[in-house]
Design brief:
About 0% of the residues lie in helices and about 35% in strands. It contains one helix and 37 strands. The strands form three sheets. It has a 15-stranded parallel beta sheet that branches. Strands 4-7-10-13-16-19-22-26-29-32-35-37 form a twelve-stranded parallel beta sheet, with no helix packed on it. It is globular. It starts with about 25 loop residues before the first strand and ends in a 75-residue tail after the last helix.
Amino acid sequence: MRPLLLTFVASLIFPVAQAMASATDVYLAQSPAGSGDGSSCANAGVYTFFNTGANWGSGSTQIGPGTTVHLCGTFSFGAAQDTVLTFQGSGSSGSPVTLLFESGASLQAQSWSAPAIYSIGNSYITINGGTNGLIEATLNGYSSATCPAGACTLTTDFGSCLLINNGSNVTVTNLNCGPLYVHYCPSGLEANCPDEGGSDTFGIALSMDDNVLLTGNTCQGSWGCISIAWGTNSNWTISNNTIFYSNIGILGSGGSGAGTLTGLIVSGNVIHDGYNWSDQGNLNHHDGMHLFSVVSGSVISGLQVYDNYIYGNWGDGINAFIFIECNSGGTCPSPRVFNNLLVDATVVPRNGNGFISVDGTSPVIANNTMVGTSITQYGAGVWTGTNAVIENNTEQNVSFALTNASGGTISVMDYNNYYNIGNWNNGTFAQWQTSCSCDAHSTGNTNPNLSASYQPTASSTALIRQGANLTSLSITALDSDKAGIARPASGAWDVGAYQSSGPVRRQPPIF
C-alpha cells in the first residue's frame, strides 16, 4: 500500500502580466495572443497571471468569487514539468472560482514531477474540463509498442493532473486526466512484465477537503486514478467517472494519521482493465477501488458504493473489484455495497480477495451481479466484518463462492443465486447451507439466464421475484435498481443489480 501524493508544491512566483480586461471572464494561454488583455482566447493573457497573488481579490481586474478563468489552446512542456497553475485564493458560496478548459485546451508535458494544477487552503473552486479538456504526459512510461508512436522512454514516477488540499466545496468535472504513465505488461502475467515504474502517479488527487464532488471525469494511465485522503472531513461524492488502464481506479485512505470521513458516496462509475499494471516484483495489486482505514482511530462512516460497473481484464495482480479494508484499529461502521455490476474477463489464472471484499461493522452486500470466468477464484467476501447482511446477489462462474473469512460474522445471508461454482468448501451446496446456517432460500446451481447486458430475461426464474424486500434497511438508493427503476415497496424483489420490470435498458457502455 502506497501513500497518496501529498508533496505540496511551493508557491510559484511569476512576473505579473498586464491587467486583465474583466474579472468575470479571464482567458489565458501559454503565450499571450492579440492584445493580451485576457478578453477572449484571441486576446489571451499569459497563464502566469493565474499564479500571482496580487492578481487575486475583489478588484475589477482581479480573479475572485464568480470569476471564470478560461484556458485556451495547448500548453506544452518538457520532461519533469513542475506545477503550471496554482490557485491563489477562494471563491464564495454560490460564486466559485472556476477554471474552465475551452474546447481543445490541454496541459501537456513529456512527464510531470508535480501536480499540473495545485491548490492548498482554498475553497469554493471548480475545475471544469468543458467538452474535452485534457491533462496528460505524452512521453512517460516503459518503452514499448503500446506507447504513443512507440516513443515512451521517460520514466518519471511522480505527477498528477491536479492536487487540491485543505479546502472545501470543491468540484472537479468533465476533465480528461492521463495517461500520466504508460505501464507496459505484454500478456497480463507478472513474470513477463519488466516495468516497475509509475508507482507515484496519481491522477485526480484530493486531500483533507470537505464537500467534494468528482463527477463526469475520465482518467487513465496512473497508479491511482482518483486518489483521496482525509483528515476529519465529510460529504464526498465520486460519481459517473470513467477509469481505465490504471492500477487502482479509486484509491482512498485516512492519510498518514487517524481521521474520520463521514458520508462518502461512490456511485455510477465505470472502471475497467488494469492488467497492464502487473509487474515482476508483484508491487502493484490491482483494484477497481480500494478504500481503506488501517490506522488506529481512522474511520470511514456512512460509506455507500453502488451502481458501479467494473469489468475487463485485470491480470494476475488483481486483488478485488471492490475492496473496503478496515483493520489495525481503523473502523468502517455500516458500509453499504449494492447494485454493482462486476464482470471479470481476466485471461490468466489469478487469486485475490474476490469481486467484493468488505470489512467493517454491520456491512450490507446486496443486489450485486457478479460474473466470472472458469479461472475467476473468489466471489463476494466478508473478511473481518461483523454482523454482515448478504442478500439478493447473483454470482456465477467462480472457482470458490467464498463469503466468510478471517473471522467475519454473518447476520443474514440468504436469497442469493449461485451458478457454476467450482467449490463449496470442498463439499456440496447443501453441506454449505448446513455448515453456515445460511442461504436457506438461495439457489445453489441454477442458471440466472442473464442477457448479453447482464440483465434478467424471461428465463431468469432464479432471479425474478426471488429476492428479499430490503426496504426496511432504509437505504434510499437501494430501493431502485442500477438503472434507476424502482423496486417494489412491498413484495419480493428481483435478485441482482437489475429489476426485471420497466423499460428495456441498453447494454452497459464498453470503453
